[in-house]
Each structure stands twice: as structure tokens, then as C-alpha cells.
Write a sequence for this structure.
């Protein structure tokens, strides 16, 4: 839970907070572009496995489902932490999310989202708020 702001280092590595690294497990993490969001999603292996299980049930004869499988697999990366808890994010992923200096790392329960600070602020100001989300989910 929570939110942190970290900087990309000169080699385009990003330090993930140690508490979050412990929750991600030892198998590395998966990074993929946000779905209809200008961010990156960083997921532990367990969450990516859930995606893969859902994808395995898709129809090979359905062009839309085939395109989804291809896009998710080809645009995802498996990353491991270095000894200092950093990951190296590919240039194409950095460009997709507009990341170059500061990066907002925001917990989203089963993943971490990586945001450009300006995009984060725009998202926050346009958000309908916690009450609307809870109402939509009937909480």
C-alpha cells in the first residue's frame, strides 16, 4: 500500500521500495504498459500467472482474442531486481509512460503502477473519487 516518488538513475534503473520487493517474491516481476492508461504496470509472478490462465481459455479462432494475447505477451517484460533493488526499464516502456526523471510508484493492491508525475496529477484531478468507486462496486 502507499505511494512513493523515486528517480530513474542515469542508466534508467528504478529502485523499488524494499517492502514492496519483499511482497513481489523472488521470481522477478513482470512489466507491461497500462491498459488504456499512460502508465506501466509492475506485477509479481503470481498476478501475471492469473493473466496467463485467463488468456489460455481464449479462442484461437477469435481474431480479437488472438490480438490481445499477442499484444500482452510481446509488450511485457520479465525483470529481476539487482542487488540494490533496482529494475532496468526498456526505453520503449519509458517512452510509452512518459517517464524520464521522477517516477510515481503507486500501489494498486495486486500491482504497482509507474506514472509520470504530471500524468499522475492529471489522473488524480480527474478521478471521480473513492466514494464513486465504492458506490460503483457496491461496497
Amino acid at each position: 500500500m502507499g505511494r512513493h516518488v523515486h528517480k530513474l538513475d542515469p542508466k534508467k534503473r528504478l529502485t523499488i521500495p524494499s517492502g514492496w520487493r519483499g511482497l513481489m517474491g523472488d521470481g522477478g516481476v513482470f512489466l507491461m504498459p497500462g491498459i488504456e492508461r499512460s502508465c506501466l504496470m509492475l506485477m509479481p509472478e503470481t498476478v501475471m500467472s492469473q493473466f496467463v490462465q485467463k488468456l489460455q481459455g481464449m479462442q484461437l479462432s477469435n481474431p480479437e482474442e488472438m490480438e490481445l494475447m499477442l499484444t500482452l505477451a510481446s509488450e511485457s517484460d520479465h525483470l529481476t531486481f539487482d542487488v540494490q533493488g533496482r529494475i532496468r526499464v526498456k526505453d520503449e516502456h519509458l517512452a510509452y509512460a512518459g517517464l524520464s526523471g521522477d517516477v510515481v510508484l503507486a500501489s494498486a493492491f495486486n500491482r504497482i503502477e509507474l506514472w509520470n508525475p504530471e500524468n499522475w496529477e492529471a489522473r488524480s484531478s480527474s478521478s471521480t473519487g473513492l466514494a464513486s468507486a465504492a458506490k460503483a462496486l457496491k461496497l
